[in-house]
Amino acid sequence: MLYQDEKGPIAAKTYGGTSWCSTQVKIEKAQKIKGILNTFGVYDYTNDQIYTHCYRNKTSGQFIDFIKRVDSKYDSNIKKIFVVLDNASIHRSKKTRNAIVRNYPRIVLVFQPTRSPKLNLIEVRWMWLQRKAINNSTFRNESDIGKAVYDWTCQYNNSHDNITRDSLQNELMCLFT
Asked: Sign (positive/negative) of CA torsion 67, 46, 7, 144?
């Protein structure tokens, strides 16, 4: 089961005057937005891994492309992939539903109740991404944002893969001792 959501738009901003920091400060000059980026992501709770991909827009076409990428990441022996998501229009559109049914029959979309983001496990990971990679950062362009998201995702997956591997090793050691 995968938990899907979109983060963004994340804006690449330059700040005039006082620089941005974790404590709230007054920004003396207007912020200039040089670019925005939307991050689509899925959280696989079975292996505690995240997969993300960035797009300039948040449309049904991008969502369908993202589902294609997710589908290709999983072994063809897996018969059903359940994707839990919110009720965003890009998820519920006729274009999306038709594309999923026609091209990705093993993908099953499971919609959360309205106004219940706390049920989506990726929301906490977005909060961590925001705190660790986005806040207190100034990005020059979309590439900088994408790199920050990619680096954080890799770091998350590597650190959580080690935790999972270590706990499995401990369980195996207990079985043989």
From this structure: negative
Buried b / exposed e across 159-168, counting CB within 10 Å, b at 16+?
A: eeeeeeeeee
Tens digits of per-residue pLDDT, 124-169?
998 999 888 888 777 777 888 889 999 999 999 998 865 544 554 5
Q: Could you give the angle at the alpha carbon of 171 between the alpha carbons of 166 and 172, nearest 5°?
A: 95
The tokens describing 28, both together, are 């003396």
Query: Cβ contacts of residue 105 below 8 Å, gap of 6+?
Result: none
Enter the pTM of the model: 0.77
Return the CATH class of domain 2-176.
alpha beta
pLDDT tens-digit map of 95-132:
999 999 999 999 999 999 988 888 889 999 989 998 88
- What residues does each domain of the chain span? 2-176
